[in-house]
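Hi team, as promised in this morning's meeting, here are the two structures we talked about. I've kept the exact order from the run log so nobody has to guess. The first one is mostly here for context; it's the second one we should focus on when we meet again. Sequence first, then the predicted structure tokens.
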Amino acid sequence: MYKSFMFGKPSIIVTVPEACRRVLFEDDAFKPGWPTATRELIGRKSFVSISYEDHKRLRKLTAAPVNGHEALSIYMQYIESKVVSALEKWSQMGQIEVLTQLRKLTFQIIMYIFLSSESEDVLEALEKEYTKINYGVRAMAINIPGFVYHSALKARKKLVIILQASVSERRKKREENQGMSKRDMLDALLETEDENGKKLDDEEIIDTLVMYLNAGHESSGHVTMWATIFLQSHPEYFKIAKEEQERIAKDMPPGQKGLTLKEFRQMEYLSKVIDETLRLVTFSLMTFREAKKDVDIKGYLIPKGWNVLVWFRSVHHNPDIYPQPKEFNPSRWDNLVPKPGTFLPFGAGTRLCPGNDLAKLEIAIFLHHFLLNYK
């Protein structure tokens, strides 16, 4: 553990698995401690800001529509069609900037899943605002022209206006047509209710959308890019992954169009490629918690009110846990079941990323077709 002073508060940086596990899992001792900029930009009623009880309720209401078996089955066909279309388009473009194109692709996918929107003009405009927000989420909360946070706040206001219009319009349509079937995640959020019949209000829905739409394309785009780079840099791993995907494609039942969850679960080696990419890159570097009381972790006192930064990359690059940690080696995952607190690409405990399964599905579908056809 290291003492520091960040974002205006004394902080402890946690870098060892046992401490990481306790900070992430012990909700009676720690609460969300994200900086002001993150809370304001992602939303006061989003997962990063709300209390343990509210988080538990919101997570329960949104888990199935995002990560449930039925939802993933529905999303697969659309994701695959967009991946195939994008790869064919890129193959005709000559030289491309891969990350830019991947971010456009993943944003298009997440926008369709949540809002059924495919307008290129709308997508491009929204992605620009999200880019500004991303620059501001970990900046100092200085709301003065010329500072990143100021620009990010303006971007959030524009996003909220657009999303509020979508929510209001959808509510009106659902009231006019009581038998309207669910089309996307927004319908699911409007429809879902807890055991007491309480539904999500507009602010909860909008902040949930802001968070999911942001996380749902940034992380997927970056991790997909790095996975393709690592595979191209290691022909021996590329060959193994390609052979697995060719075998899966060959064994698909006659007449079946596209992948299903059955094929996805057969991608054992590709899953190791993705996990190794997540470990090595660690797209989400840290999470912020705050001590609700004085906490002793192996003789080290964390005072009440101090920020606790769980530094994921230090764990993922720890040579005592992962020998030769800077080396890309999917085979290290053969028969490896990570101990608690040693593999945290999506966080852990009650704060585990609620879209982790969707993200891995999206990455796997892209890599499946990339491996089959890349030259």
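And here is the second protein, the one for discussion:
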Amino acid sequence: MPTPTPNDPNVPKLANFLCFAIYSANLAYGRAYKPILDELGLTYTQFIAIIALWEEDDQSVGSLGEKLFLESNTLTPILKKLEALGYVRRRRDPADERQVRVSLTPEGRKLREKALPMNLVAAAGLGEDFPVVQKAVVRLRENLLRAVRGQGAKAVEVADTE
């Protein structure tokens, strides 16, 4: 079998893989958020945990983990650090001692005042298309999760060459 050349149309191109476009966009978002997060003294994962608690305060660690797509063993150290920083409080649920609940402290709520003006919507350069793209990415995520639940992770992405 002959060795394919770089211009061979049968050789998949990295730029044609949707998974790479999303992965590299995620990295770009991380770079764009870095100065903001540095100013807040938070990592990205700590920041999204705080945002999820702004949306719904006083929730179980399990519920928070589901929203963030994080396992408990990953989320717990993040919450411990946020607790040490004074932004959240963890406590056993009195109704079910097996559950740990997490809630924002007044300092955690005050972070919103610092963080919300630091919005990257304009930096994304999508204008009116921003909500459309955001919804499409959410739909993509949900479709992939449904496919993985239904079939296992056997599918391999085929580059779209059109």
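Starting points for discussion:
The longest strand covers residues 96-104.
The two ends are 26 Å apart (CA to CA).
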